[in-house]
Amino acid sequence: MVKTQILEYRESDKLLRGFLAFDDSHSEPRPGILVFHENTGLTDHEKERATRLAELGYVALACDMFGEPIAQASDAERRAAFEEFRNKRLLPRAVAGLDALAAQHQADQKQMAAIGFCLGGMAALELARSGADIKGVVSFHGGLATTRPAVAGQMKARVLACHGALDPFITLDHVTAFADEMQAAAVDWCVILYGGAMHGFTNPAADRFGRPGVAYHEPSDVRSWAAMQQFFTELFGV
Known about the structure:
The protein is α/β, with parallel strands linked by helices. The protein has one domain: Rossmann fold, CATH 3.40.50. It has helices at about 45-55, 75-90, 90-100, 120-130, 170-185, 220-235; strands spanning about 1-10, 15-25, 30-35, 60, 105-115, 135-140, 160-165, 190-195. Helix 1 (about 45-55) links the parallel strand 3 and strand 4. The longest helix is centred in the C-terminal third of the chain and has 19 residues, at about 220-235. The radius of gyration is 17 Å and the shape is globular. The protein starts with a strand and ends with a helix.
């Protein structure tokens, strides 16, 4: 039976509240999967995905990357705060989530992976680029550019990037540059482009923003989730 609970952990002095999901019928530790959220913070979307991963036999932690963010007074201040977060806190917060999940007795510390959506896809990729001891990462419509490109011999994780071919924010030029980066670093990688899909294609709530270029696309959501399952079966045999 799948159980869920709030898991409190810290990065530096910031209290974070993640969402842990696991099947308590398993007596042995199971592979652990981090779930990194979009730039809107930890929502029901990521919690639902963590629960679905638990149903598949994994121990999943939907991470809290923001904690209690301070509301900014203007769009410019919000953008500045986000840039500072991306440059200074994104990777430490991802590592904190990894440490928190590894500390759970239900999770196998030697069998870890991560997935992420939008900002979370970027977080998963940055965690992999850092050389973290994880088996693989999956990015769903995530940011592909980086200031810390992968280094040959350092990156341990395999990579699957699921990307909307019509994404206006992370363009096909970004995809090509990412492929070149992965190839140069001799990473085991794969990019899947989904026709008809824009940014946010996995999130049924994406349309609520009314933002051009952001939309849910059910066929690509279903196909990319199936691709993720096959990827994890190859990694873990689950």
